[in-house]
Amino acid sequence: MKKVTLISLIFLFVFSQNGFAQQEKGIVGSNNWLYNWTEFNPNQEDYDEPTQILTGNITEDTKLSKRETYLLVGNVFVTNNATLTIEPGTVIRGDYDTKASLTITRGASIIAKGLETDPIIFTSSKTQKRPGDWGGIIILGNAPTNRFGNGSVASYYSDLKTVSYSHTNFGGDSNDSNSGIMKFVRIEYAGKRLKNNKYVNGLFLAGVGNNTTINNIMISYAAGNSVEVWGGDLKLNKIVSYRASTNDYKFNYGAQCVLQNSLAVRSPFSSNSSGSRCLEVASFEKKEEVDFSKSGTVLTARNLTFYNESDNLKDDIEKGLVKEAVYVSENASLHMDKSVISGFNPAVIFQNTISINQYNLEKIKFSNMYFNNCKGNIFVENNSNNEDLENWYGNSAFFNVYSKSQDSETFIDIKNNKRPDFRLRINKIIATKEQFAAEDLIIEDN
Known about the structure:
Blueprint: E1 3-12, E2 52-54, E3 57-58, E4 62-64, E5 69-72, E6 75-78, E7 83-86, E8 91-94, E9 101-104, E10 109-113, E11 120-124, E12 137-140, E13 151-152, E14 169-170, E15 180-188, E16 203-206, E17 213-220, E18 227-230, E19 233-242, E20 249-252, E21 256-266, E22 279-281, E23 298-308, H1 313-318, E24 326-328, E25 333-337, E26 340-342, E27 348-350, H2 358-363, E28 364-367, E29 370-372, E30 378-380, H3 387-393, E31 401-403, H4 407-410, E32 411-413, E33 421-424, E34 428-437
Parallel strand pairs: 2-5, 3-6, 4-7, 5-8, 6-9, 7-10, 8-11, 9-12, 10-15, 11-15, 12-16, 15-17, 16-18, 17-19, 18-20, 19-21, 20-22, 21-23, 22-24, 23-25, 23-26, 24-27, 25-28, 26-29, 27-30, 29-31
Antiparallel strand pairs: 1-34, 13-14, 32-33
Keywords: Signal
Signal peptide: 1-21
């Protein structure tokens, strides 16, 4: 491929009396909002042994107390329009033997309002924890999808009893339905593997309406997707996905969502062989499942940071351990703005059924982006000729920046195991000129 001039961006960090200056790209905040409530070494945490058991159906309003440690056993359903309230600091351990899961059914709700200094924790019952030790959390609502009729997530349970099948339905016509609040919650080692070769997700949201609050959630070491959303109308804010084995965030079946100020940290040694990504945006798995007169998936993704923590990125790419960060499927819309994608191969891939024309390019937008240290930027699947996409997204009107910078120069403090800071470390940009192959990096001046 042709040679291009690299405008190498060298970042200078300037201290001030107020600490690090806030940046407009990637996760933002005048302070590091990861402090206090997140945990990047959950296997080192020593949780109390269970004192109470949660099993079967919860059919009336129930409150879980911080003074108890709960063992979640089997498929637990909150039904009958009941509300499950969880006090800040409560620990719920998912049983390994029964691959436990917690489901909030249609009409029911969860009020899990942790505190920054006292988060609610869902974790494994094992001492030596591994991804997929237990199921995960499933919330089912009354908001629309693009499927024919309403849907069911019955295939995401093991040993599901016939009497419980009705509890797995989701979807309706209420965009503004309310399934409750989840805030300052950690979900660790979820995502059990099922007999049908599927995985449960850390947090699975199907048909959930826009009066539901999902903020400050950390999903660590999920064997399935950290967060998967089917249909519904949601705003997700300050979500952290850490070392997921599958995708960090997946949106499907007509989801109308905003994902903002959120982080995904991938490890090349945690991902499974299915081509795990930070973000997948789709409108269906099989065309015959969906009604094309209904809206496909529309995602607005703002102030996200997608980071691959390879120690040797070139070697990991050559070994096939690093894939693309973002995958966009046919009939889906994505507007990604003011976000950082650092260390992937390449940054973005479009499904090969997407034609590169004005209509589709208007549906898939990238603006004010910072693409760093990626082997290639935006491609159509199985097509190495991305000149049309380079010309389109490289237009100065989109204000996209392409660079190759050391992680230590890019982020404030990612090597701090206890209190990492993934905000950008940019205060000034100085341009220098070097020569690189176009397949490695395409540069535009911001």
